[in-house]
Design brief:
It is built from 16 helices and 32 strands. The structure holds oxalic acid and manganese (II) ion.
């Protein structure tokens, strides 16, 4: 008798009409075959799917060039289709599920004609973990199939785990005809279904990642009592060999992947990597918060990656242990057949083609690599991979870091007074937009816990879920805000960042282990300068004080903006968040303000 999975595949094949159906087994042999198909047979937008890079200097590495209109997540085409709009909240696009399915059904009729349908059974999390989830993705792209095998644990064993169950999350993906007008990424929580058509881009097409592991999983977490978060996971080892596990949420362009693989500049400190993008956080049997990384690879932004910004990522990319590594939309040095991107070490090659394969030279004043060009590489290639990565129980988390990119206002590091205050601090977090859109530089986009594009339900309810989770934790982790981007009067960053961020991690670990006290401010606790290890750094005292300056006028303005943002959640906003807001506001009313430099 056909299983539920087989019946579903049959039903989708009837709709999409592929030439062939291929069930992936996750083996390396199969990955070689899929890459070969991508080089020789399958076409995407009329082009080969993969090009082999220099086999001597970049062995087992392949370049993929996407359709020029298909280079990033398309938030405006991403919908969460709950029965009612209110559940989706103001942070999600919503469409009535019946209407959404009708649209997608029309777009999907015969969309796989002439193509192969790949069926990918995959696991998010270690197969032995009680927190892992078995899923199936269908796709008509060998690029997606190869990338899924890097990013998740693919294999026939997943089918055995699913058996005849019906409650696994189904992902249905087709590149369609790559027409942005016919592109949708739709989530159907009541049917455990993600349906994506018209894009081959990672965040839109690798459905285990943002679609399942964040949007759908955030809803599962709400139902089942856990948190799915946009967070890296690291272990910080001190000179005595003690490890402290930390997660950190950061919006894009705030150095999340760099922090996940940080090379310490402090003697005796070592950072161990467990993940760079997603954490699933569960309450363990001892009442502490345990994190697993549901993914098995990195899908990271390439430009800016160098031996200075992230030496361990450069080593990961060259490790050549797990087959293969994929570069998407980088430029290509035609003489050496090697990928190239802005910010990489070394001179700019003389003879290059850009990310679309067109001749490029620096006088063109354009980017050679697309600013959102990506690598997909196995986490097992990472030289700093923690030996706890495959621990099915996960790792106990002592601190949660919430990052922001603000040239003013937010100190280098602040510890929240308690869990509830930390949730409020995360709820009001925003980042200044970067130079990508010149006219918009410095505009603040509020992005609570870096989850605004990824929370599958109303974020007011999400804040409540955080508050409730904290009440069950014994003890809850401490929550810290960090901001590497504070600038001086000339607009120059004060803090050197990158490997030097370990100095902030050290203070966080010292606070978690009650080794140092701290100075109270209206925003939380900040370090006494004597407790921040600054040996070897040449930052004048005045500038260091600026890193922690809290300007009441600026904060009065900031809180007006925060209030507007929080008000959109209406009655869904927990009373506790309102209280925290009022308390903070009162601290900044002129008669009460008493803020000095830390000493
Ligand atoms: C993102 C990503 O967009 O991780 O956040 O790709
Ligand atoms: Mn991300």
């Amino acid at each position: 008798m056909a299983t539920y999975v087989e019946k579903w595949i049959e039903e989708i094949a009837k709709l999409t009409q592929p030439d062939k159906i291929y069930w992936c087994n996750g083996s390396e042999k199969e990955a070689h075959r899929l890459v070969e198909i991508g080089i020789k047979e399958e076409r995407l937008g009329g082009k080969a799917v993969f090009y082999e890079l220099n086999p001597k200097t970049y062995p087992n590495c392949y370049l993929h060039r996407s359709h020029p209109t298909d280079v990033a997540r398309t938030e405006h085409l991403t919908f969460v289709c709950h029965k009612d709009k209110e559940t989706a909240g103001p942070n999600n696009n919503w469409m009535e599920p019946k209407e959404a399915k009708e649209r997608l059904t029309k777009l999907s009729m015969g969309c796989m004609r002439g193509r192969t349908m790949y069926v990918i059974p995959y696991m998010m999390g270690h197969p032995d973990s009680p927190y892992a989830k078995a899923c199936i993705q269908i796709t008509d792209s060998c690029y997606v199939a190869v990338n899924m095998r890097i990013m998740a644990r693919v294999g026939s064993f997943v089918l055995e785990k699913i058996g005849n169950r019906q409650d696994f999350v189904k992902g249905l993906h087709s590149v369609g005809d790559l027409d942005p007008k016919k592109r949708f990424i739709m989530h159907f929580p009541d049917d455990n279904l993600v349906w994506s058509i018209g894009s081959g881009y990672g965040g839109n097409a690798l459905l285990g990642k943002k679609c399942f592991a964040l949007r759908m999983a955030s809803l599962l977490g709400l139902k089942e009592g856990w948190l799915a978060e946009h967070m890296l996971i690291i272990g910080v080892e001190d000179p005595e060999g003690n490890g402290t596990y930390v997660t950190a949420a950061m919006p894009s362009a705030c150095g999340k992947t760099n922090l996940a693989m940080l090379e310490s500049t402090l003697p005796g400190y070592k950072i161990w990597t467990l993940g760079d993008d997603i954490s699933w956080l569960n309450i363990g049997p001892d009442g502490r918060l345990y994190a697993i990384n549901p993914e098995a690879g990195f899908f990271g932004v390439v430009p800016g990656t160098s031996m200075k910004s992230n030496p361990n990522m450069m080593r990961t990319l060259k490790a050549n242990k797990f087959y293969p590594t994929i570069y998407t939309n980088t430029a290509l040095d035609v003489d050496t057949n090697e990928p190239w991107w802005e910010g990489v070490d070394g001179p700019v090659p003389k003879n290059m083609v850009d990310w679309q394969g067109k001749p490029w030279d620096s006088s063109l004043n354009t980017n050679a690599a697309h600013p959102n060009s990506r690598f997909t590489v196995s986490i097992y290639n990472c030289p700093t991979l923690s030996r706890e990565f495959d621990n099915p129980k996960g790792v106990p988390i002592s601190a949660i870091i919430l990052g922001a990119r603000r040239t003013q206002l937010i100190p280098l590091v602040v510890e929240s007074f308690n869990w509830q205050h930390g949730v409020f601090s995360g709820a009001r977090t925003g980042s200044e937009t970067t130079a990508a859109a010149a006219h918009q530089i410095g505009v603040v986009r509020r992005d609570p816990m870096a989850m605004l594009p990824f929370c599958g339900y109303d974020m007011g309810d999400y804040f409540r879920h955080w508050i409730n989770t904290g009440k069950k934790l014994t003890p809850p982790p401490k929550i810290f805000l960090v901001n590497w981007f504070r600038a001086d009067e000339k607009g120059k960053f004060i803090w050197p960042g990158f490997g030097e961020n370990v100095r902030v991690l050290k203070w966080i670990v010292d606070r978690v282990n009650n080794r140092v006290d701290a100075k109270e401010t209206p925003l939380g606790y900040v370090p006494h300068l004597r407790d921040l290890d600054l040996k070897g750094l040449d930052i004048p005292k005045g500038k260091l004080e600026k890193l922690f300056e809290i300007n009441p006028q600026d904060w009065q303005q900031e809180l007006e903006d925060v209030e507007k943002f929080l008000n959109q959640f209406g009655s869904h906003l927990p009373q506790e968040i309102r209280q925290e807001f009022d308390t903070t506001k009162a601290k900044f009313t002129p008669s009460l303000v008493k803020v000095g430099p830390c000493a």
